Amino acid sequence: MRIVVKVGTSTLAHAAGRLNIRHVEELVKVLSDLKNAGHEIILVSSGAIGMGVGKLNLPARPTDMPGKQAAAAVGQCELMYTYDRLFSQYNHTVAQILLTGEDVDHAGRRKNFENTMRRLLELGVLPIINENDTVATAEIKVGDNDTLGAIVSCSVEAELLVLLSDINGLYTADPRQDPGAALIPEVEEVTPEIEALAGGTGSGLGTGGMATKLRAAKMVTAAGCDMVIANGDRPELLYDIVEGKPAGTRFLARTGSARP
Predict the structure, then answer these.
(1) HEC states along 141-205?
(2) Euclidean distance between CA atoms 230 and 243, whole angstroms
(3) How far is residue 202's CA from residue 131's CA, in Å, rounded to a whole number?
């Protein structure tokens, strides 16, 4: 199975921006094991700006564009160094790919990206993808890594997209405000009623929220790909997700949907 896993900043880093070593080590171990089992794994990783905030000892995530770009430049080094070191322990080679909105909107550049991805997978490499926050501005940004994960999934014709975040899945109401909120285990179609369940933005270090995840679900399910939202605190859930067992919220590929 070709699987795209998107991991959010809240999973990779503590609230202050420093690396959450336990979570990252567990994630890498599970992904390596799934790759050993014969699956093709693509990781879409947030965290560059958040880790830059921690590395630079900034009091909060910058709000100005140059500040964000500077934090991303510093944080991206630490992020990829960590992934390379940890995956190497399991004899897996990683590759870094940084994209901007122009790379996925321009037909020729998107084709180049798809060709590179195919060759990397043929070589047994585990691609690690992030938006190029060091150079991307508001005009050329994809915007969030939930959307980027969906774009990557469609581009490589993945069978499964997993969004690991700081939430267990989609609920009938906001579980932080309504103790009676129930987890929705399966969604056959992202209807207006489902979209109305989306709350606000995510953590202070990240950029996503439920609304971006539901947009991602609409994109990938239309292309014949399942999508699961699950809690990144428990990377071992990926085993159940890949086996099709109940975990988080699974959005089912639309019947009769065609791959791009």
Answers:
(1) CCCCHHHHHHHHHHHCCCCEEEEEECCCCCECCCCCCCCCCCECCEECCCCHHHHCCCCCECCCC
(2) 14
(3) 18
Model confidence pLDDT, tens digit, residues 66-113? 898 898 899 898 899 999 999 999 999 999 999 888 887 888 898 999
SS3 31: helix
Look up tokens 């929705």; give the residue.
Answer: 184
Model confidence, pTM: 0.88
- Which helix (H) or strand (E) segment holds residue 252: the answer is none
Closest listed residue to residue 82, CA positions, set 7, 171, 188, 167 = 7
Neighbour tally for 146: CB within 10 Å: 32
Tokens of 243: 């086996």
Decide: 19 and 78 in contact? Cβ < 8 Å.
yes
